[in-house]
Amino acid sequence: MQDGRMEKYMEEKKVDVIIPVYKPGAEFRGLLARLMKQTVMPEHIFILQTIEDGEELLQFPEECIKVFPVRRAEFDHGGTRDYGARLSDADYILFMTQDAVPKNEGMIEELLKGFAGGSVGMSYGRQLARKDADITEQLARLYNYPPESRLKTRADLEELGIKTYFCSDVCAMYDRMLYLELGGFVHPTIFNEDTIMASRIIQAGYGVYYGAEAKVVHSHSYTCMQQFRRNFDLGVSQKQYSEVFENISSEKEGAGFAKKTILTLCKGLHFVKAFYFAWQCAFRLLGYKMGKNYDRLPKGMVLWCTMSKGYWK
User: Fold this and answer.
1) What is the pTM of this model?
2) Number of structural domains the chain divides into
3) Is 248 part of any domain?
4) Alpha-carbon distance values, 30 to 34, 101, 138, 287 (Å)
5) CA 121 – CA 175 distance, rounded (Å)
6) What is residue 102's DSSP assignment?
7) Mind listing the pLDDT tens digit for each residue in 168-208?
8) Of 302, 122, 115, nearest in space to 203 by CA
């Protein structure tokens, strides 16, 4: 699309931002400050605040920021975000998490560019590791979020496998009307609402665009047990929505990532890091395998394994 037409496209399209929050920290203020300085300004910022009894709602002076309460017992990864989506009447809805801070002022603009060619249902951004992130986390971010943009369609399933559906609601924009036509996020869901939605978009004949220039700073340093529990929930979601995942192996993709990361660490003489990462991978695989078989486990074991205890109540 030529520059003039692109400018007009940006001016005509409205974007609402939707952010679920729970006891947000300092990063959240940084996120809001960066959103208010974007080259394409959001029409509204809908904050879905998970609250406990007696907790007060957050307050902001900006009229475009609206806060809506969600009781902790009612929070759901898919359902809560879907509630936010249905508050909007914008052309596009941008989901973010409270700890993802835009790297640049053109983040929203870059995500919008992914839709300019038509036939795209979703556009997601690049996640960069924090400056103090461990080298293994830096390599993970580089592996999953490379510096090159890419459009993914059904034609890529043979080459990319599960990575065709890979995306993240840490920073992901959806065509709102298509989102509604496809039924919105599945719920209740313990994990993967974004990947499941991406699979629906692609199977409906639309594309998923990865915009490498739409950057947010977002990373975590998980312990072995946190990796175990996170991957347990991943396995649960894949078991519950087997129609999406049954013909595409996640284990092959995980093995490829592990092998590449260990080789890179060893080449850099980070042998202790390589050993610890391999140990973490064992926890990930065990958690994933147990999650895939959650329905065979006693309830007490499930509650011990999961990262999302509220989901099971």
Assistant:
1) 0.93
2) 2
3) yes
4) 6, 6, 21, 34
5) 5
6) E
7) 999 999 999 999 999 999 999 998 999 999 999 999 999 99
8) 122
